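Sanity check

After download, print the first record. It should look like this:
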Amino acid sequence: MPRVSCLYLDDSGTRNPNHAPSDGQFRDWFALGGVLINEEDEDDIRRAHETFCRSWGITYPLHSVKIRCRSDEFSWLNTLTPEEYQRFMIELSDFLTSAPVMGHACVIDRPGYDGRYRERYGRQQWMLCKTAFSVLCERSAKLARRDDRKLRVYPEEGDKSADNAVRRYYRELRETGMPFAGPDSTKYAALSAEELNETLYDLKFKRKSSPLAQLADLYLYPQARGGYEPDYRPYQILFDAQKIIDSAISKEEIPHLGVKYSCFDN
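Expected structure tokens:
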């Protein structure tokens, strides 16, 4: 059996390139990402997740938005003393930084994308999930190949239309390679269709009940916000612990292996 890396994915923001932004949104992005995990480490992560949840009496999925907003199932965080809340956040942070994973993502600034491509393509602009999925899978496949591994891709299950689109993007990567033409494909040393077909091993969807899908959710928001606010504390904690891919590779490797922050010109 081949050695396998696993890419667990969540998404944040709307995938429509010119959809009106949500009220109160910190920045207007579409992000796809989460964590890379060596398959043999998954059981250890599940046990650590169970230990953390049991210690706080949590019997439902860890959810980034609900924890940040102290809402819904996590509204009980509002009842904690400042000291207890601080302990919860420290223990959550310890769980995230001790897990044998690496954060990875593709984050697209929607106004920047729309400004760059609307005049050229009009209503023919791609949905942002196609760009993000292609870029992230290709970079993760390079990392897997570097370690002589195959790559399984595990997006979080969504609506039927979005999931079918992801299946199509995955199939196209294996059959025809990266969808981008022109100088960028050379600049980023993109893998060929043959290399992607050889490396991309499987695609399966996970529900939010999966501890590893929850880990992807918890890792994605700091990576997305960190593109706009590098001193955002949760991002800094992960980066300093070398849990974001950009902190674990050389500066020269970041443009073709690191987190992709797309259309951030402005």
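If your output differs, re-run the checksum step. Summary of this record's structure: Strands lie at 4-12, 29-38, 101-109, 150-155, 200-203, 260-262.
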